[in-house]
Amino acid sequence: MGRLSRFGLVVAGVVVGGALAWGGVAAAGRLSGPAVTVVKESRQVPKGYLSTNVVCPEEQRAIGGGYAYYGDHELDNRVTVEVNAPEATSDKPGSVADAWSLFFLNPKSKTITVEVSVICAPIG
Predict the structure, then answer these.
(1) What is the distance between the alpha carbons of residues 16 and 102, in angstroms, rounded to a whole number?
(2) Which of 11, 14, 49, 96 is buried most deeply by CB count within 10 Å?
(3) Which residues of 47-75 are buried (b: 16+ CB within 10 A; e: fewer)?
(4) Is residue 76 helix, strand or coil?
């Protein structure tokens, strides 16, 4: 393949990639819906474990969540997260997942601080 052919493929790839990107931007611009709420809270995790959750405001469901740990990171003594998932705070059948559940294992000799979050959207 000559130089011009390679250049032509690159240009075609850029044009197609640009069109796909612009199409995604246009689609994202057309999407509208209810506003989301992000709830962030801080938790103290002592040596051992902590099971916790972050709850959405009334009439909202959890659509995402997670955590941030900004402390010392040691490969041989790492903080582990066993659960990082949506959960329902009610035991009623058909309950909506309205919280984000986390379970931390802390092998360190000191208490650590984590930031836990849930992303919520209106039910319905």
Answers:
(1) 42
(2) 96
(3) eeebebbbbbeeebbbeebebebeeeeee
(4) coil
Amino acid letter, 55: V
In the predicted structure, residue 25 carries a pLDDT above the cut 60: no
Residue 117 confidence (pLDDT) above 90: yes
pLDDT of residue 10: 36
Chain Cα centroid distance, residue 70: 16
User: In this structure, are strands 37-45 and 112-122 parallel, antiparallel, or unpaired?
Assistant: antiparallel
Exposed e or buried b per residue across 9-33, where buried means at least 16 C-beta atoms within 10 angstroms of its C-beta: eeeeeeeeeeeeeeeeeeeeeeeee
Cα dihedral: 62, 81, 108, 72 (round 10)? -80
Cα distance between residue 17 and residue 23, in whole Å = 10
